Automatic annotation (TrEMBL):
Organism lineage string: Eukaryota, Fungi, Dikarya, Basidiomycota, Ustilaginomycotina
InterPro entries according to UniProt: Trm112, Trm112-like
UniProt-recorded name of the protein: Trm112p-domain-containing protein
Organism: Tilletiopsis washingtonensis
One GO MF term: protein heterodimerization activity
Entry's family note: Belongs to the TRM112 family.
Amino acid sequence: MRLLTHNLLSCHARTCVQTSNNFPLAFKDVQLELIEAEYNEAFLRGFIPKIHWPALVAAARQLGDSSLPDQGPDVGQSMIDESLLKALHHVLLEVHVVEGQMLCPNCSHIFQIRNGIPNMLLAEHEISK
């Protein structure tokens, strides 16, 4: 699972649906793999407005990568530093969580990650109705 995906995931357990404290999910006991990906500046520039920057920086740092600054680029800014785009490319697209867990900060539900795939399914009693 890439951090690109992680930045879009939140807990949807019954106890979390009405709260705003179900994002971002925290990593625990992870196994990482670095997989080189083709650099695509246009994709990165288009995706920047969709990124929750504080969550991305926190996740990257949990995984041992401190290459991103605390503050993200101004979304309307056309001149974004090339080194920032390359660091963003690395964090979003080349860092893969192969095994581990994601933990909800609100209800402490654990979502397993196996073979790079996060299992976001909930048991029937955990689903909001």
